[in-house]
Amino acid sequence: MRLSPTRFGLLLSGVLSTFAFAQETDVSSQQGFDVIYAPAMQASSKLIIKNPLIATAKLSNRLVAVGSHGNIITRDLDSNTWKQANVPTSVLLTSVDFASDSIGYAAGHHGVILKTTDGGDTWQRIFDGFDLLDLEVAFYQQRIAELEQKIAAEGDESGDLQWALDDAKFYLENAQRAKQETGPSKPILDIKTLANGDVLAVGAYNTLLVSQDKGTTWQLISGRLDNPNGFHLNAIATQGDNVFIAGEAGTAYASRDNGESWLSVAPPYDGSLFGAHFDNQGRLWTYGLRGNIFVSDDLGERYTAIDSPADANLMSGYADTQGTQWIVGNSGVILAITPSLDVTEHTHPSSAVFGEMVEFNGEKVLTSRSGIYYWPAKTTQSETAEKGLE
Amino acid sequence: MDNNIENKKPSLLERALFKFRLVWLLLFAAVTLVLGYNAVQVRPDASFTKMIPTEHPFIQNYFEYQKDLSSLGNVVRIAVENKQGDIFEPEFQETVKQITDEVFYIPGVNRSGLRSLWTPNVRWMEVTEEGFVGGPVVPDGYDGGQESIAQLRENVLRSGEVGNLVANNFESTIIYVPLDEVNPETGEKLDYGEFSERLETLVRDKYQSDEIGIHITGFAKLIGDLIDGAEQVGLFFLLAILITLAMLYVYSRCWRSTFTVLGCSIIAVIWQLGIIDLIGSGINPYSMLVPFLVFAIGVSHGVQIINAIGYNRTHGFDKFEASKLAFRSLYIAGLTALASDAIGFTTLMVIDIAVIKELAIAASIGVAVVVLTNLGLLPILMSYFGVSDKGVEYHRKAESEKHIVVRTFEKFAQPKWAYSALGVAVVLLAWGLYYGQQMQIGDLDKGSPELRPDSRYNLDNAYIVDNYSSSTDIFVVMAATEPQQCIAYNNLEFMDRFSWHMQNTNGVQDVKSIVYVSKMGMFAINEGNLKWFTLNRNQFVTNASLSRIPDGLINNDCSMAPIIIYLDDHKAETLKNVVASVESFKQNYQKEGIDLLMAAGNSGIEAATNSVIESAQNKMLLWVYGVVIFLCLVTFRSLRTVACIVLPLAFTTVMSQGLMAVLGIGIKVATLPVIALGVGIGVDYGIYIYSKVKEGLQRGMDLPATYRYALENTGKAVGFTGLTLAIGVATWIFSPIKFQADMGILLTFMFLWNMLGALILIPALARLFKVGKLHQK
After folding, report:
1. Do A354 and B530 touch (CB under 8 A)?
2. CB–CB of B484/A20 below 8 Å?
């Protein structure tokens, strides 16, 4: 079995770790502060825009960006200033999506999902990792029951069912221990509103959640994906009823019915896919580790590999009105791909690790590990120029 | 001067001194030889711990973890700059390589920690489908060719060293040199002076050119520069001696008296230094001021003696009798004045900082020594040499004329001048009080406050701060946990919250800690996916994220992780704000198992020093004024008199505070003692002048006549004393060490202003308070 770096790291930690933490702190004994429940600290927007911001959502007259320490900031059209929203969590937020100009969802680490009904000014925490653990416990209990029934009814000549049963028991135990002792650790990595109004969230270790009542209740539907290794689900792209999930280690899933049924549509590549988007012609673009880009006309049945000059990770992209694909990623890389598939690689002078690029108010705005940037780079944005101003 | 003094009975002291003159001379010679031998052994000593308030809780916390923090602090950075291009040129890279090799062999360098583009520990790393790949930044098979250089450029960009080892503008690169405080092979302590010297000759002198710029910063370099600067102080001493020599001659017109006074004062300095060495105290950049003071005080009292001898000679006594009578008339006044100086210095002991205590001890010893050399040795020597005939002639002539001091200042006893002077003083006082409010605690300039802003060290420092992403004003909070728990998830999350809180504090530029390393580790083990750039609750994952921890971010048993806060500057206000912000976080988020301890780092230590200074400032003023008022009360037994003497001193203190605000000199370890020194020595003038005023009033003279009498008797000596003291310390203004220059400016101002204040304001206040009636019986 191939080891993803995460799992490799896990294995490594068992062997190499200098510091043994045999017993972990009991969640219930923690007083005061937990990152899930601590409201985001009021900070100056000047500081927030220099700290990690990952994802953006565009409303008709407003841009919303989410990032570290529960930071959510908004900027209205024709305004130069960012405003910090009221957020009841301090986790790193990885994603944000709006169903309308007023209703939106954001999600992040420790299984946190937030909802706003006022266009992003104030947010409510509607789901967190403890809820996810409850869903997982129920999920595995049901699976164990099913498997045991199946073994009793059909027998298990190959032993595969027993394997699956042992796995399910192991995961159940993990979820129970996490609930009682360590607390939730799985991040949600992307969230999207689907064409039918359902809200879909994906996360680490094959976490797939859906809500059919605008976030009030959530179902764990990980079982719909064929992901035996439990690879991370990194990003969601949608167009009409079509939904695509890009995952770790070259895994990818597609649904033509708003997430009811799924097919595995892995591209011919073993590396992780970090992002995906549909263009105006309905083509699916997905990309990831080391500058690899694939495009598909048929929702992932067949892919064409793009000859990309980039070798940094690519995180996200979009198609502009002229039909150019813009894809951004680590090391300040910004790719422009013309409709005739000519690729130009730009490097932003900041060399920042980019999350997303979005066109807003006639500018290309970038989120990154070191905050907000623009393309073309504003002179004051380059680090040296900024130093000079001080 | 009492005209009948020759009829008084000689004291026991006087008889003992003048009967066995030769024995005393031999004794003085022997002691001078012994102490002289010790004095030569005195070395400038810039011990760091002596400059900080060791009892302060911040410093106690720092001491507890000092060993764990050492790798953070004791580092020298050498920035090698290509003045005519960027770092991606083969010749330039060759130079960087040579300097790296050169530095590698300098004793004291921690070789395994040495980092530059040319050391194998500086690597780039990347995540690929197969896992991590990476290599040294200088590619294998580097040959200086175009391809190698292109590869080097790419490796630098993906190494994450831009802003760190490589300047943001790519025009320079840093060689990062950690030092071993104690040589691991020989067990010897690092000699900062020698190390700094080697850096100069082996790196700067050898490689600096029109193409290559060298910029060196770091604690070791700073200490080296301080020791260097301190050595220049010897030159100032020589200068002070020469100026004093000229002044003495102008004053006495007699080479014999001039050299005798100078010689005795130098002997006093030798004794003082010898005793300092004997008690094992050494001399630090602050107590270096003491020899200057001792010398100046010695000269000013010596002048009184030769003045009296000259007077006696003009009245027909031979040189032996003249000296004896001079001693008789002056030893009580001299002893009193010196005692008040010594007590003034002793009040400095209330400040809990070792260098200030050492300064107080050294100054007290010096004053005691002056009693012996200039009240004892000087009259004996003068009884052999005598004042030259030319000197006696000059003295006679001077006595018959009105001296300039008398002419200038006698007016101030008249109502018109007195009230004008008081009016001007009130205006000045208002100015002083207004600006005094703006006086700040601590250091105000950028860069290293010990040196001048335009010193080479501070220019180098500014270069590195401008071109790299780091501030040099560092405040460290130590997050203390149970052993093995410093990287427990809950503790890391707590530290992260704290870091974010501190980042949101005014004056904070950036915050770095193990938290950042864990986030970077999470980012890396998740294939460089930005969405994982955060802490993880799973302890095993967290441990994995911390498989490579840079030196100094946790201690050996993982019971402490420093949180390093980079500040905009080290102004007292900024530091206070940071301390308050830490306190408020602790109040809101107190959590079991982790404690946030202040403070280490240069700014943390400065914050502690500032708080000690702030509380000591008023305490010291209370003490010194209390002592002075007490002494005056005992001597004169009148509150109005005390007011006449003390108000001019207080006026000077207020004015000097205004001056400090205007000149941008903060109250700090160096300037706090100056206030006590100024008051302690300044009160002498008042005592001299007022004792004569009292005498005149008691004889029934009116105020103008009384004051003229006082000026004729002491005015000249007071004027001369003020000038000699001022010149003795004024040479310090040219010191390359900033705080010595600040001390020089303030002391010069205080000595001159105290003198003028005494000469002008005492008669004016005497008129205001109608002291004339007080003494007329």
Report:
1. yes
2. yes
Q: Say if CB B606 and CB B598 are below 8 A apart.
A: no
Is residue A106 within 8 Å of A113, Cβ to Cβ? yes
* pLDDT single digits (tens) B219-261: 788 888 887 887 788 888 888 899 999 988 988 888 999 999 9
CA distance B738 to chain A (A): 25
Q: Would you call the peptide bond into B599 cis, given omega within 30 degrees of 0 as the criterion? A: yes
**What DSSP designation does A93 have?**
E
Q: Which two tokens stand for residue A298?
A: 């048929």
CA distances (Å), origin A31, targets A25, A338, B591: 11, 55, 7
User: Is there a contact between A33 and B497 if contact means CB atoms under 8 Å apart?
Assistant: yes
Contacts of A315 (CB under 8 A, 6+ apart): A274, A275, A328, A329, A330, A354, A355, A356, B529, B530
Q: A324 pLDDT exceeds 90?
A: yes
* Nearest-Cα residue of chain A relative to residue B503: A47
Interchain CB distance below 8 Å, B530 and A10: no
Task: State how far the Cα of B400 lies from the Cα of B643, in Å rounded to an integer.
Answer: 34
Residues of B in contact with A185 (CB under 8 A): 536-538, 541
Chain B CB contacts of A109 under 8 Å are 534, 536
Alpha carbons B401 and B111: distance in angstroms, whole number? 75
Per the document, the length of chain B is 777
Hey, what amino acid is at B493?
Answer: E
Of A5, A33, A234, the CB nearest to B494: A33
Inter-chain contact B539–A24, Cβ cutoff 8 Å?
yes
pLDDT tens string A165-182: 998 999 999 999 998 888
Report the predicted TM-score, pTM, of the whole model to 2 decimal places.
0.83
Q: B221 and B459 in contact (C-beta within 8 Å)?
A: no
Q: How would residue B685 be classed by pLDDT, with cut points 50, 70 and 90? A: confident
ipTM of this predicted structure: 0.91
Residue A20 has pLDDT above 50, yes or no: no
